[in-house]
Amino acid sequence: MTDRGTITLFHGEALFRAGQPATHFYLVQHGTINIVDQAGVTTMRAFTDGELFGIPEVLARGTWMLSAVAWGPTGVQRFTAERLFSSLSEMPKSHSDFLCQIASLA
User: Fold this and answer.
1) Parent domain of 41
2) Helix, strand, or coil (residue 49)
């Protein structure tokens, strides 16, 4: 299922579920990830090729409020929270403050 941070999902397979800790953020390499309500019925948002998602939740060190499910065969690259936090320490304070402000909205 994983290879160097790359995850291959089948149609309907969950990447994460509501209530799990947000320890990674993701880049959709191909396919679609639907962010669905807790019942798994309504798609709240869809991410497709080249889109990043999960950064505000990781910055907030929170849990996923919704679930992420593949729509069709999908590949995503996974990045650890530590990678994001180490990048924050290397960027100008104004940029890291901005990202932290975004995280407070998650």
Assistant:
1) 2-103
2) coil
